[in-house]
Amino acid sequence: MKQLMAIEWLKIKKYRTFWTIMLLFGACVLLWNLGVTTGVLRLGGDGINLLGSSNSFGGIWDTVTYYTSNFVLVPAIFIIIGITNEYQFRTNRQNVIDGWTRLQFFHAKWYMMKSLALTVTLFVAVMGLVIGLITGASFAYIGDNIEKLVYMLILCANYFGFALMISVFVKRSGLAIGILMLYCMIIEMMLHFFFLFKLKLPFLDLLLPLQSSDELLPSSTFNALLKTGKFGYQPPTLTYAIVSCIWICIYYLIARRRLMRSDW
């Protein structure tokens, strides 16, 4: 595994597109979360900020993980570019010529996906600590809602695994990115609101691959609506975490089967 990850790192460490995408992601996430938690970005009046702001670590973990989850499509796009480029420039074949098996090639990409998910989560953790220092949050309560970081890791792995699966099937970066955006921003969103508002059965989100992870990190406003009981039964958060992990395993099995059986 270490050798595969080392080779993948050699491929991307001087790849400008990778650093451009990740720096853009990091800058957007950091500036947005700083703006929200410090009150610079506001929505509402009379001392009310519907975007959410908090001077406690429990609230900070809620805020930074929720808003970062809205930007995870950016690194997911790199997953697509990194994999589809292997097909476009035939470097996947060169890997096999150099002695790799197809399974090793697939696992190298899978390890890259997991490493990127872990990196994003660690970035969020450090960002939360920095914001806590800036806002004067008490470190005595640093453990409040710390499980949100675990949910952040699961959400990233879910989105990135989904992007990897699309890449293995489509093999063209533009089309693959288009499919990812179409599904995430339109198709699944429509299904989500249909289950939520038309059927009033929010637990059916468990059937949706990415929404099952989105439910791990809901906005504070949406949480308040759920507590009113207006939308009916809401499964425990742990249920969404388990279902998200199942979806990640499904992506792995589908993508692996496709790659092992497809032409190179």
TrEMBL record:
Alphabetically ordered keywords of this record: Membrane, Transmembrane, Transmembrane helix
Highest taxon listed in the record's lineage: Bacteria
UniProt-recorded name of the protein: Uncharacterized protein
Transmembrane segments: 21-44, 64-83, 116-143, 149-170, 177-197, 237-254
Organism name: Taibaiella soli
